[in-house]
Specification:
The complex is a heterodimer.
Chain A: E1 8-17, E2 20-30, E3 35-39, H1 46-54, E4 61-66, E5 69-71, H2 75-79, E6 82-85, H3 97-107, H4 112-125, H5 141-153, E7 159-163, H6 171-186, E8 190-195, H7 198-203, E9 206-211, E10 214-219, H8 221-226, E11 230-237, H9 240-247, E12 253-259, E13 262-268, H10 274-284, E14 289-294, H11 298-306
Parallel strand pairs in A: 3-8, 3-9, 6-7, 7-8
Antiparallel strand pairs in A: 1-2, 1-4, 4-5, 9-10, 11-13, 11-14, 12-13
Chain B: H1 4-20, H2 22-42, E1 50-56, H3 61-72, E2 76-82, H4 85-93, E3 99-103, H5 107-112, E4 120-123, H6 128-138, H7 169-199, H8 202-206, H9 213-242, H10 251-275, H11 279-296, H12 308-316, H13 318-332, H14 340-360
Classes of the chains: A alpha/beta, B alpha/beta.
Chain lengths: ~325, ~375
């Protein structure tokens, strides 16, 4: 069997709005039946990239091939094969669950008998049966989100785009939602999801961290954690703000994040014995604190990568690094 | 692949939403009802029963006859009697009367000498409509005794007014109202209906589906064509049975003309929808168009009396042409074929707006 064709390939995909470059020469290769995440802060180009891949925005430069179709040239043909869940709830609030699904199935021209079957199946699968006669506008965030996902996969798309799908949803609903995504991936659907939640990013098969329109790191979550270009020191202390103050400006330290009574300190990779240095500095400041080397988490990767401290991934995975901000290759 | 399911899906969805949008639903019937009632009952350019005072200083049989004739014309209703013209002026100033009839002591002698008017009308002429009414009075002659009619007097023209012999405003206004109401509602409904989808984010979902521009547009427009025809029917029924507005021409012609006019306004609504970013903006733009329509089209003031520039502007407005069409058909019994230039004008307007709208509406975000 030959290597299956990837769901999405982009080469130098770029989009400018006036003088602003929202997406800057992105190269992606997303395999089929994967859940692939775009992780990045607001305004990092996640939505713009998704919109280009759907054919909603014309790239200023570069090319994209989605499900073997050239974008944006063959965007209309692509529309039958993709599902798109917008960041904002975009079904009709003054229609009921059932009416919304009926409308979407007619838009995709599902034959009548098939339509009834499929809607019933989705109502069951997303626990919407009791809400089928309720207007979408009166439903909770989690319920609406289930409805939106049901509508997005109603025509059984090969590729599903989800633009920050869980921003208005409680944690339990988020968990259920992700269960649903894995089910879809198991059935062969490729899912491209943008998020700014670390726990969601961690669940993806593959991940691209975006910052200011640039892919600053990509790979699987474990790959990313293994290749972080920093050492992580965790400081346990009851005087967190004092400790933070003491450590600021210490050579090699480039990020300090407080997590309750802990500080995550990121130190440049070539800095020798970071744990000892930090402990010494804390002792010198007469702080009750204990520093220990820690395993990098995805959040550490995110912090490091968005500050330009991510080691070059395997060749070909990305074309251009961020503008020189102390990128070191050991 | 053409798929009628998609078109019908959009239509059905639109109807369902419309049924649930009580405000819009109420406006569909409410606007025509309110306007017909307002214009039919309240607004009357054919003025009658102006409050009048009389200062009869002659006190002869003939002078009393003059006052009685003036009252019989129904243009004025005599409400006050004073002794002097000064008394009349005071009443005018206080706003208690709008017309004063002053009959001098030498009234009968003046009647014999044609060089001087026999009596005087004192007017609150600030309102031109009142002036027009007074002109009617001044042309009045004393019929009772032909011998005392001023020499060389008598009207020069006999007025022949076959289409509205009773001079009732409703006859002139109700057909025009069909046009005014359609202008107001059709353009606004379509513009708002499409802008709403954009505002609420529905469009972002729709443009990611295989639905086509044409299906989306036609599907959204069709229900409003139906609504427009319902409004036309409502106004016709109210006008005909409540205000006895005649329908001289063919009813089919009325509906054909209305359909064409609806199309022109929907086209306009579509253009607005591609320009407006919010429902509020869409409404503002419709009103921007509505105001000149109502003022310049000939609905309020006769087209021929307007300055040339205003006439040129009016020629662009579809309402101007529709008014000529509908008044021609309803009041003069004209056939559509006799009003071809107006039909052409409306068709051109529709074609231009539809082209503009399709060019501007893109299934993309950029």
């Amino acid at each position: 069997m030959t290597e299956p064709e990837p769901a999405i390939v982009t080469r130098g995909l770029t989009r400018r709005f006036g003088s602003l470059t929202a997406v800057d020469h992105i190269n992606l290769r997303i395999p089929r039946a994967h859940i692939y995440g775009f992780l990045g802060p607001n305004g990092s180009g996640k939505s713009t990239t998704i919109r280009m891949l759907c054919g909603l925005l014309t790239p200023s430069e570069g090319e994209a091939e989605v499900l073997g179709l050239q974008i944006p040239k063959e965007a209309e043909a692509l529309k039958r094969k993709i599902g798109y869940m917008t960041q904002r709830f975009s079904l009709y609030e003054d229609l009921t669950t059932h009416e919304n699904l009926e409308f979407i199935s007619d838009i995709y021209c599902l034959p009548r008998p098939r339509r009834r079957e499929r809607i019933a199946e989705l109502l069951r699968r997303f626990q919407l049966e009791e809400l089928s006669q309720q207007r979408a506008g009166t439903m909770s965030g989690g319920q609406r989100q289930r409805l939106a996902l049901a509508a997005a996969i109603l025509h059984q798309p090969e590729l599903l785009f989800l633009d920050e799908p869980t921003s208005a949803v409680d944690p339990q609903s988020r968990r259920d939602f992700w269960e649903g995504l894995f089910e879809l991936a198991d059935q062969g659907t490729t899912v491209l999801v943008s998020t700014h939640y670390m726990d969601e990013a961690e669940r993806c098969h593959g991940l691209a961290i975006l910052n200011q329109g640039v892919v600053v790191a990509d790979g699987s979550p474990s790959e990313l954690e293994a290749t972080i270009d920093a050492q992580v020191v965790e400081v346990q202390t009851r005087q967190a703000s004092g400790a933070r103050h003491a450590l600021e400006g210490l050579p090699g330290v480039f990020s300090i994040t407080q997590l309750g009574a802990r500080l995550r300190v990121l130190v440049e990779r070539d800095q020798p014995a970071p744990q000892e240095q930090i402990q010494q500095r804390l002792n010198a400041a007469h702080l009750e604190a204990e520093a220990q080397l820690a395993e990098p988490s995805l959040e550490d990767v995110f912090v490091a990568a968005t500050q330009g401290r991510y080691r070059e991934a395997p060749p070909g995975a990305r074309a251009s690094g961020p503008p020189g901000n102390g990128v070191t290759i050991p | 692949m053409s798929c009628f399911t998609r078109l019908f899906a959009v239509v059905r969805k639109e109807l369902r939403q419309l049924g649930r949008d009580r405000l819009t639903f109420g406006m569909i019937a409410g606007i025509p009802l309110l306007q017909v009632m307002l214009f039919g009952y309240a607004i009357n350019t054919d003025v009658r029963h102006l409050r009048a005072g009389v200062a009869d200083q002659a006190g002869t049989e003939l002078s009393r006859e003059l006052a009685a004739d003036a009252a019989a014309s129904q243009v004025v209703t005599l409400t006050r009697k004073v002794d002097t013209p000064e008394g009349l002026l005071e009443l005018l100033r206080r706003g208690e009367i709008t017309v004063g009839i002053a009959i001098p002591p030498d009234f009968e002698r003046r009647l014999q000498q044609s060089e001087r008017p026999a009596a005087q009308l004192l007017l609150d002429g600030a309102d031109p409509v009142v002036l027009g009414a007074a002109r009617q009075l001044s042309q009045m002659t004393l019929r009772q005794d032909t011998a005392v009619v001023p020499k060389g007097g008598g009207p020069l023209f006999e007025v022949y007014n076959p289409y509205n012999p009773e001079r009732r405003s409703a006859v002139h206004i109700v057909p025009g109202l069909i046009g005014v109401i359609l202008t107001m509602t059709m353009a606004m409904f379509t513009a708002v209906a499409i802008v709403r989808e954009r505002e609420r984010g529905n469009l972002e979902l729709l443009i990611n589906t295989p639905v086509r521009n044409s299906e989306l547009m036609v599907g959204k427009i069709l229900p409003y064509i139906g609504i427009g025809l319902i409004q036309v029917t409502l106004i016709l029924l109210l006008g005909h049975f409540l205000f006895r507005v005649p329908i001289m021409g063919a009813v089919g012609d009325i509906y054909l003309a209305a359909l064409l006019f609806i199309a022109a306004n929907l086209g306009l609504g579509l253009v607005i929808s591609t320009l407006a970013q919010s429902q509020f903006q869409a409404m503002q733009m419709t009103f921007f168009f509505f105001l000149p329509s109502i003022l310049l089209s000939g609905f309020m003031f006769p087209f021929d009396g307007m300055p040339l520039v205003a006439q040129h502007i009016a020629t662009i407005l579809p309402l101007t042409h529709f008014l000529r069409l509908i008044r021609g058909i309803m009041l003069r019994g004209a056939a559509l074929g006799e009003l071809l230039p107006e039909i052409q004008a409306l068709a051109i307007f529709t074609a231009i707006t539809l082209t503009l709208a399709t060019l501007r509406f893109r299934k993309r975000l950029d």
